Amino acid sequence: MLQGGAANAGAVVREGAYVLRPSNPHSEVIHALFRHVRAAGFDGVPEPVGIDPDGRERLVFIPGETAWPPLPAWRQTDAMLGSIAELLARFHAAAQGFAAPMGATWNRELADPAGGSVICHNDVCVENVVFRDGVALALLNFDFAAPGRPLYDLGVMARMCIPLDTPEDAAVWGRGPLDPIRRLRLVADSYGLPPGREEFVRIIGQQMDSGAKFVRLRVERGEPAFVEMWERMGGEARYDRRRDWFALNRARFLEALG
User: Fold this and answer.
1) Distance from C-alpha of 37 to C-alpha of 197, rounded to nearest angstrom
2) Which residue spans of the chain are classified as CATH 3.90.1200.10?
3) pLDDT value at position 33?
């Protein structure tokens, strides 16, 4: 058994050279996306094999390390953070021009509300990245992939990987005394974000409530992993603190981004 995220906890296993995980109505189009970006020269996604008769998707296992809270020091370095942003930039470039098969659908739970033409991951957290020698090597768990704007996807990654959170709440997940304002500039620079970065900050500000809505819905459904997460993080109050903290420091983030 492999350590899965909240949505697939206990349901992801390794079988020799392969990983078996629950499929969903969007797995076929996600596999098509994997084949597209790999053909474009980006090997930072799993290689799809297909859907097994028992309904699980089969992917080629990617050797490396994954990160889970509490995070060790090496998983919180600037080099590691910058490498995730660089990896995401290469994924977005490779995803350009992808044409979904006729009738394909996407999960819209975490999708960019403004839509877009590039398939985005929408859930790039440290737990969904494979590392090797402290460098981001591949992205995992594309269950929430959907068309959107790369800038929105980058905002999700920044929010969760920096992390953009109060120092007290970041510490709950074992995060060290990191400087989120300086690290947001690092993400933007590593991704290659051009000047005119005010929109980036605006998008992140809009996202500050989206995570709460997503988790709250899962909690209301009674999904155990999300209930545990909600309670551990302090419930709704934690998301209120994060929103207010980001708004209070908005000018500092803008200044740091240049």
Assistant:
1) 27
2) 73-257
3) 98
The residue written with tokens 């390390």 in the block is: 65
| Secondary structure tally for the chain: helices H, strands E | 10, 8
* Longest CA span, the chain: 54
Contact 127/67 with Cβ under 8 angstroms?
yes
Task: Please tell me the distance from the alpha carbon of residue 28 to that of residue 172, in angstroms, as a whole number.
Answer: 37
Tokens found for residue 12: 């992801």
State how far the alpha carbon of 201 is from the alpha carbons of 120, 143, 161, in Å: 18, 26, 15
Cis peptide bond N-terminal to 70, omega within 30: yes
With both helix axes pointing from N to C terminus, report the angle between 27-39 and 78-95 in degrees, rounded to the nearest 10: 100
pLDDT surpassing 70 at residue 5: no
**pLDDT for 4 beyond 70:** no
CA distances for 49 relative to 29, 32, 102, 139, 251, angstroms: 13, 11, 20, 17, 47
* Per-residue pLDDT tens digits for 188-222: 999 999 999 999 999 999 998 888 888 899 899 99
Contacts of 235 (CB under 8 A, 6+ apart): none
Structure tokens at 170: 């970041």
Q: Which amino acid is at 258?
A: G
The per-residue pLDDT of the chain, averaged, comes to 92
Q: What is the pLDDT of residue 201?
A: 97
- In this structure, are residues 154 and 118 in contact, taking their beta carbons and an 8 Å threshold? no
Superfamily for the 73-257 domain: Aminoglycoside phosphotransferase (APH), C-terminal lobe (3.90.1200.10)
